[in-house]
From TrEMBL:
Domain of life the protein comes from: Bacteria
Pfam families per the UniProt record, alphabetical: UvrD-helicase (PF00580), UvrD_C_2 (PF13538)
Keywords assigned: ATP-binding, Helicase, Hydrolase, Nucleotide-binding
Protein name stated in the entry: DNA helicase
GO biological process, one term: recombinational repair
Cell wall biogenesis/degradation found in the keyword field: no
InterPro entries: DNA_helicase_UvrD/REP, HelD_bacillota, P-loop_NTPase, UvrD-like_ATP-bd, UvrD-like_helicase_C
One Gene Ontology term, aspect cellular component: cytosol
Length: 765
């Protein structure tokens, strides 16, 4: 309990700080408006200058110089505007809720430091009124227990005494909640935060980061940081705050464009899209694995994980499982390295064609390749071939520029195309301008060939891959089975298709041959739901972003895609994958998303009982509703949804497959907005959302209805994980419907964990 004078002095401080924020905000807003006006005036002036486009060469040169100067002015003015905008945004964010924590430390004197989502200084910049949660000293708020403590600063380790740690909830300049705590961030505020309703956007957790999450957020020395965490343990939250932390600490060397996150699906990308902006940071790049492969395999239709999962539900023969295990392991990548290091493979080339005509024939490319120095490595020989082709192409450009065709094109050129070509150029004579334009015309015509050479399309990589497969002798696979798979890869190539399990070996072979495929700009790579990646895929990501530090997070218990054909210990896999790197492993066992009843039920669904500690937030027991006929099931589904909608804003019906989701969408009758989620939908909605579980990865809803958990649908080895993932999406309530006999995975659970058809299972027993 707080003495009234304590409460009053905290309330007074909030008022004073909010007043100061408002004052600074008014000042900055005026400055920003002035800066915007200035940019507008310069731009207007720039437009006028650019319009003075004359035929006289001297005038034209003068115009160009003026244009350059104006451009620089615009750039400077825009930069100033950006800085001011940033400040205004920061103050706006602080205005509503200036801070959430206070620590009192004592060195020579006693200091009270207040922690918020951004820092605030006095006008003369001599004193911090609020410390950014990412500053070194703020680390104490998350880590320190009362008493002597140490914290890291840029100048080394500092020691101090922590006398007080206080938490606040401040809404619109009023303290609505205030607690003192002696250890890590106490339960009271967390209880409050976790009890709220689901949102279409994930929220930041900076006010209540837990100690073990803080270690992940502030880790700067691991090359590969692996986070294994139970469903709802805050893995995604921790890494998003980690991105904000990294951006803050490497402000001058790291830009959000140098961070890439592999996310499980588009809904998820949208769901997390507001966390970084709410902390004043720009979002990192986001990509799904499928998008990444599609970008790299231009022209081939790539089988995606979702399609494959759907097909696996219908049939997954043993021979397919064995092939996948091999093609998705690093053994296949090692075999490629050996294949390229040993006696050199024959190389196959493609004609380079333009509008139906051969520009470079296979024979010519072959001859160039043969002429390259024999001591060079394969990739260097190909690079030399590529350079030679580009030189020959330049000669072809010159020839084309001198042709009648180019002359004709020039005469037909309209004014705007002409302007596009000459802008930013000045010529000493009309003849020089003419020569320049002819060359541009020829260059544009042959540009597709340049691109094809640049992208190594002269190499017939598909044939190369088939040749590789033909030479591999994978263990535990019969030669005849391997041969027929090779045939099916060939048929797919003819239809411009590639199976998911072939993608990584195919890309890796191409990269190793051409020496390409590596992006050295990216400094940090994040993979969410790492358990859905094969060892070969993770290895390939490291190969594709060789300078990036990796953060891999996931939960082996939520392995949806591979659970039916292999069980791997993802942590061991990662350790073996990156023996040269500093790999650090963190486990998160406290689960925050769901009520204690849902978390305990979900954990019990797993065959190997994991160590999951439920957050103590009570709610109703999960309910199993068994319906004898389909009409009963559908009626029960509508009834359950209606009941849940009376209490909650966002509920989801989760199915195993897309087909089931579509069927429910066609029949569900409720008085609310109902949305069928598909792979291409990008945002969550209020009301009822229907989707297959793989689209709900990483998401959460107030209540979940798991559709048809019958023994018929859930009896395979990987089904434990699917059910666990479904159950753990629910925050407050979980209902499972079954048509006929329910899955043994549920009925074998201790009866105390759920109720069945409205009464407790214990009572029924
Ligand atoms: N320290 C925290 N303070 C407040 N809320 C938290 C905290 N940690 C996690 N949460 C909340 O718990 C829920 C689950 O978090 P998150 O989605 O990050 O977990 P996850 O481990 O990625 O889950 P999953 O693997 O099941 O997708 C979210 O609502 C998140 O806001």
């Amino acid at each position: 309990m707080f003495a009234p004078k304590d409460r009053q002095s905290e309330a007074d401080r909030v008022s004073t700080i909010v007043e100061e924020i408002k004052r600074q905000l008014t000042e900055m807003t005026v400055k920003l408006a002035n800066a915007e006006l200035e940019t507008h005036l310069i731009e207007q002036n720039y437009g006028d200058t650019a319009k003075i486009n004359t035929v006289e060469i001297d005038d034209q040169m003068e115009t160009n110089a003026a244009v350059q100067q104006q451009k620089q002015l615009v750039a400077l003015s825009v930069e100033n505007q950006t800085i001011l905008k940033h400040k205004v945004n920061r103050l706006q964010r602080l205005q509503d809720s200036p801070y959430f924590g206070r620590i009192d430390i004592e060195d020579d004197s006693q200091d009270s430091l207040y922690i918020g989502t951004a820092s605030l200084m006095t006008d003369d910049e001599t004193e911090f009124l609020i410390y950014d949660w990412r500053s070194p000293i703020a680390g104490i708020y998350y880590n320190g227990t009362l008493g002597k403590i140490a914290y890291e600063t840029p100048d080394g380790r500092q020691e101090t005494e922590l006398k007080l740690k206080r938490q606040f909830t401040i809404k619109q300049d009023r303290i609505t909640n205030m607690f003192d705590t002696s250890e890590t961030i106490g339960d009271e505020i967390l209880q409050q935060v976790l009890g709220t309703d689901a949102n279409v956007y994930m929220q930041n957790i900076v006010a209540t980061i837990q100690r073990e999450q803080n270690e992940i957020i502030r880790n700067t020395n691991a090359d590969v940081l692996v986070v294994q965490g139970a469903a709802g343990s805050g893995k995604t939250s921790a890494i998003l705050q980690r991105v904000a932390y990294l951006l803050y600490h490497s402000r001058t060397q790291l830009d959000s464009d140098q961070i890439i996150m592999f996310s499980p699906n588009h809904l998820f990308s949208h769901y997390i899209s507001q966390v970084l902006p709410s902390l004043g940071e720009k979002n990192m790049r986001q990509v799904t694995l499928n998008e990444f492969f599609v970008q790299r395999l231009h022209g081939l239709h790539v089988e995606d994980r979702f399609q494959r999962f759907e097909q696996d539900q219908a049939s997954l023969p043993e021979s397919t499982k064995v092939m996948r295990r091999y093609l998705e392991s690093t053994a296949v990548l090692e075999a490629i390295d050996l294949h390229l290091q040993g006696s050199r493979p024959d190389l196959y080339f493609n004609d380079l064609m333009l509008a139906g005509e051969v520009v470079f024939a296979v024979s010519e490319i072959q001859a160039i390749y043969q002429e390259t120095a024999s001591h060079l490595s394969l990739s260097d020989k190909l690079l030399a071939t590529k350079n030679r082709l580009i030189r020959r192409l330049q000669q072809k450009v010159r020839e084309l520029a001198a042709s009648d065709w180019a002359q004709e094109q020039l005469e037909l050129m309209d004014e705007s195309d002409y302007q596009d070509l000459v802008i930013d150029h000045h010529f000493h004579s009309v003849a020089a301008e003419q020569a320049f334009l002819l060359k541009q015309v020829a260059r544009q015509r042959l540009y597709p060939i340049y691109e094809a050479i640049y992208n190594n399309q002269f190499l017939d990589i598909e044939r190369q891959y088939l040749q590789l497969l033909g030479q591999l002798q994978p263990p535990k696979i019969m030669a005849s089975a391997w041969q027929s798979r090779l045939e099916s890869v060939k048929t797919r190539f003819e239809r411009h298709q590639i199976r998911l399990s072939d993608v990584v070996p195919f890309l890796y072979l191409r990269d190793q041959l051409t020496g390409g495929g590596q992006n050295r700009q990216i400094q940090y790579l994040f993979v969410d739901e790492m358990q859905d990646y094969s060892a070969a895929q993770l290895f390939y990501l490291h190969h594709a972003f060789p300078l990036a530090k990796m953060t891999l997070l996931g939960d082996y218990a939520q392995d949806l895609f591979a659970g039916n054909y292999q069980s791997t210990n993802i942590i061991e896999t990662v350790k073996q994958l990156f023996p040269q790197q500093r790999v650090q492993i963190h486990e998160l066992n406290n689960s925050y998303r769901s009520t204690i009843q849902i978390t305990n039920f979900a954990s019990a669904l797993l065959p190997e009982q994991p160590q999951i500690i439920a957050f103590n937030r009570p709610g109703p027991r999960p309910e199993l509703l068994v319906c004898p006929r389909l009409v009963d099931l559908n009626r029960e589904l509508s009834r359950s949804c209606t009941r849940l909608l009376a209490k909650y804003g966002m509920i989801a019906i989760l199915t195993k497959t897309q087909a089931e989701a579509e069927q429910i969408f066609a029949t569900l009758q409720v008085d609310a907005e109902v949305t069928l989620m598909t792979e291409n939908k990008r945002r969550l909605n209020h009301g009822v959302m229907i989707m297959p579980i793989y689209l709900a990865k990483g998401l959460e809803f107030d209540a979940v209805v798991g559709y048809n958990v019958s023994e018929k649908s859930f009896s395979q080895p990987g089904d434990h994980q699917i059910l666990y993932t479904i159950a753990s999406r629910a925050m407050h309530e979980l209902i499972l419907l079954s048509l006929g006999t329910p899955t043994h995975i549920v009925t074998e659970l201790p009866p105390s964990l759920y109720s069945r058809n409205g009464s407790s299972v214990e009572a029924q027993a």
